[in-house]
Here is the input.
Amino acid sequence: MVENENFPAPPPGAVAVYDERQRQILRGELVGLVAFTILALGGVIAISLALADWRAFQGFRAESTYNYAGVQQVDFVEYLRRNNKTLAQPSAEALQAYNVWQQQNPRTVNVQVLTKYLGEEYNSTAKVFAYMSKYFTPGVGQSCEYCHNLQNFAAYDKPQKTVAKAMLIMQFELQNKWINSIPRPEGQPLYQLQCATCHNGQAQFWNSTEKNNPTLENLAKFGIAGGGNPTQYDMRHYGITLNGKPPASYEIVDDKLLAARPDANGEVNYFQVTATRDTPPGLNDTYRNQAAMYHMNVALNVGCDFCHYGGYFKSYVTAEGTFKWPKSQSRHMVGMIQDIAINWFPQMPKTDPNRGDYAQPNCWMCHRGYVVPPGAYLPAADEIPRQVSDPEIRPLVDLPLPKPKLPKN
Here is the structure.
C-alpha cells in the first residue's frame, strides 16, 4: 500500500483484526436475527393456538351447518348384492311348520323378550313371525330352523335360540342407552340396531370364520393392526407376519381402550391419545392412536377431515364456525364399543362352549366401509324398544354415558 499524509499505512495486522471483528459483529447480528425470528414465530404460533383454544372451547359457535343427514344409507339388499349374496328368507319347510303352529297357537307361547320391550301386541304369533322374518332371518342369513324346533317353536332345545334371545336383549339395551342418546343434528335420522347391523347376513361373525388365516389385505376387517397395512418397517420392528397375530399395541380394542379412565374433570375418558406430561417417552401411544384412527378411516371409508377440522384436530368446530357432528358422534360410539366389550360380549352364551374366537367389537363390525351401517334400520312405530326396569341380562359394570359434545348457542 502506498503511504501518504492523508492515508497513513495501517499498523501490521490491523486489516486482519478489523476483518475478524466485522465477522464477529456479523455473526452476532445473524444469531440475533435468527433468535428474533424464532421468538416471533413462537409468539405467532402461541397466539394462534390460544385463539384456536378460545374459539373451540370458550363458546364461539356459529350456526351449526355440518350435517350428514343427507348421507344415503346403502340399502341392505344392495349391500348383499354387492357382496354376491341374497336376502335370506324362511324355507318352505319352515313356512309349512309355522302355518301349523300358528293355527294351533294364535297367541304366542313362551315369548319373553319382544313382549317386554315392544309391547303386548307381540303376544300375537303372526306379529312375532313377521318381526322374525323381517329382521332375524335376513340379519343372520338363516331360516327359522336354525334356532327353532319346527315341531315346537316355543322350545329352547337349540343353543342358537338361547344365544339369539341374549343378543336381542343386548340389542334393545344398547339401543336405549347409546343409539337413542347419540348427539345428532336436526334432520339426521335415528337408526335402530338389528341383527343385520352386526351380523350383516351371516350367522357367525366375520372374524370368527376368517381369523385363522388373516392376511395383510383383510387386516382392516379385523379391527387389528389399526385396520391398515403396517409398513415394512413396522412389520420388522414389531415382528408382524402374514399369518401371525399383531401385537396388542396395534389392536383398536385393547386394555387401554377397554379400561374406563376418568379424566381431570372426573368424566370417563373412553378414548383419547394419552400423551400428557406424565406419558413415558416413546411412540407407543402415538402408534396406538394412529392405528385406531386408521381403522376408523377404513371402517367408514372416509378421510380424517370427515370428523376433524384440519386446521386444529382438537377442535369440534372449523374456522368458519361449522360444528363437526361426526367427531362428537364417533366419540360417543367408541363408548358403546367399550360397553359391548366389557358388559355384553362376555355374557353372551355360545353355541359351542369350546370356541373362544368370538369377535371383538369395533367400527368395521357394523359400518363395513359405509358411513351409515348397511344393516341399520329406520324402525316402524311399534318396533321401537321401551325402557325396562328389570332386563334379564344386566351390565357387569355401570359405565356412564359420556357427556355429549354439542354446539353452543
The first strand starts at residue 261 and ends at 262. DSSP finds 14 helices and two strands in the chain. The CA atoms of residues 69 and 373 lie 14 Å apart. The radius of gyration is 31 Å.
